[in-house]
Amino acid sequence: MDNYHDRPYQTNEKPMTAVETVLKVSGLTTRFETQDGVVHAVNDVSFSVRKGEFLGVVGESGSGKSVTMMSLLRLIPMPPGKIVGGEAIYDEIDLLGLELDDLRSIRGDHIGFIFQDPMTSLNPVLTIGYQLTEWLKVNTDMAEEEREGRAIELLELVGIPSPEQRLKSYPHELSGGMRQRVMIALALAASPNILIADEPTTALDVTIQAQIIELVKDLREKLGTAVVWITHDLGVVAGLADRVIVMYGGQIVEEGPVAEIYASPKHPYTIGLLDSVPRVDQKGSELVSIPGAPPALYAEPERCTFAVRCPYAFDRCLQENPPLITVSTDRSVACWYDIDKEGPRHVW
Fold this sequence. Notes:
This protein is 29% helix and 24% strand. By secondary structure, it is α/β, with parallel strands linked by helices. The longest helix is centred in the middle third of the chain and has 18 residues, at 206-223. The chain is built from 11 helices and 14 strands. An 8-stranded mixed sheet has the order 6-7-8-3-9-10-12-11, sandwiched between helices. Strands 2-1-4-5 form a 4-stranded antiparallel sheet, with helices on one face. The protein has helices at residues 65-72, 100-106, 118-121, 128-139, 144-157, 163-166, 176-188, 206-223, 234-240, 258-263, 268-275; strands at 21-34, 37-50, 54-58, 81-90, 93-94, 111-114, 194-198, 226-231, 243-248, 251-257, 325-328, 331-333, 337-338, 343-344.
């Protein structure tokens, strides 16, 4: 492995000033009943979101990133999905134990969600203006004569030109980037404390991706909203996040400040992810891939889910699933092998 301390990643190293926790998730466990068996999609996941921070959640497809965040607001289809354990405390309320009617008052008002594909989230037969004002009607106590003005303000906030005219447009009349900006406007309509973005730039070209990323960054600075950004793009996380969570096999395998994780990853999977990123400063070098395939998750993990793909695996990895172990201030890793000491981790 190469020396990560020498890597010139451009990370967001702005010191965190706010440490207040606005969301604390403990032991979240989600299952899906399928024809082939029960899929253990999320397994005993615990993390927190701090006030005003930008939290990146990374991992390959199927690692449990989106299901974890959608489970918090019970947005997964039930059935076949089922949340079988855990709690998610927001404002001293357990979101997982709320009645759906009460939870709907939390969605949007307090926690906004931006979905991956705006074309499947916006109603194709209703104008943008109708969808925005209807959302405000249902989720706020704003008077009818105020809603259109607020809708125009929201479109201006997310950088849509001629917002008065765009209120009359249908989703198919807007570009992909414009539709995603409308989704962000909807998510911000009630000035939520937390904004969850589920790979919101995946379907967009790179120029529009950069614009959307810069928009969310500016809005976070302006509004003080905590952002949870779900992605497989490590470059985006490096430039935006304060902290990062790395997920694999439905579990968190590493967590910590983004600059520290990129400079000195503690989990073999994180090392593999960083090695697989193309580097402009290493011309001619071959891309590195992680051998093997992600686990099917048809059984509850009783051993390390990464063990069969891991170059450091030893007997204990194949017999026991490691918990998330605190290794330093604000750093945690789920691994029986100590990368720094190049030997087994002495945790019993």
